[in-house]
Amino acid sequence: IWFAFVVTNVLEISESCSNGEPRLFKQAQTQYYGMLQICNSTQMWEAVCDYSWHCNEAIVACKQLGFTNSIPEYSSDFGPWDSIGFGPYSYCSTSYTTLFQCSVYGSSYLNSNSYCDPNRDTVGIKCNNY
User: Fold this and answer.
1) Which of 54, 111, 126, 127 has the fewest CB atoms lying closer than 10 Å?
2) Which pLDDT score, from 0 to 100, does residue 83 have?
3) From start to end of the chain, where are the E strands?
4) What's the rounded mean pLDDT across residues 28-42?
5) DSSP assignment, residue 101?
6) Contact 39, 57 (CB under 8 A)
7) Is 100 in a helix, a strand, or coil?
8) 23-27: long-range contacts at Cβ-Cβ below 8 A with a sequence spacing of 24 or more?
9) Which of 67, 56, 5, 59 is nearest to 30 (CA)?
């Protein structure tokens, strides 16, 4: 069962947000599980599209966040976000250190609600150090 969450912060702005910085946006009290978001060039948090999201992308995202391992989540249970600004990824090697090294599909996928609808297609991941 999928539950909708009301998003109250439209494209949330954070003082510590810098371009390309990832975070796990959480509605639970954990530091290792959440919706993956990346700070864009205007210092606003945007979600990552889950179309074609696999283990390799999750591993790289968790490494970028300072963890050693990951478990990808599909159809994230952290609910919708205001916009999706990153992805979808077409190829990502686990040897990469940031998601910006990964190949992406064209903007037609990112801008399509068929593939990257912010109401249902946001990436969630569980990161850990074991």
Assistant:
1) 111
2) 83
3) 22-25, 33-39, 45-48, 69-73, 84-86, 89-91, 103-104, 124-128
4) 82
5) G
6) no
7) helix
8) 23/65, 24/65, 24/125, 24/127, 25/78, 25/81, 26/78, 27/78, 27/79
9) 67
pTM of the model: 0.79
Instruction: Name the token pair of 49.
Output: 């599209």
Measured over the CA atoms of residue 17, residue 22, residue 25 and residue 28, the dihedral's sign is: negative
Residue type at 36 in one-letter notation: L
Contacts of residue 81, defined as CB under 8 A and 6 or more positions apart, other chains included, come to: 7, 25, 35, 37, 45, 46, 47, 118, 122
Structure tokens at 30: 């954990």
**Do 84 and 122 form a contact (C-beta atoms < 8 A)?**
yes
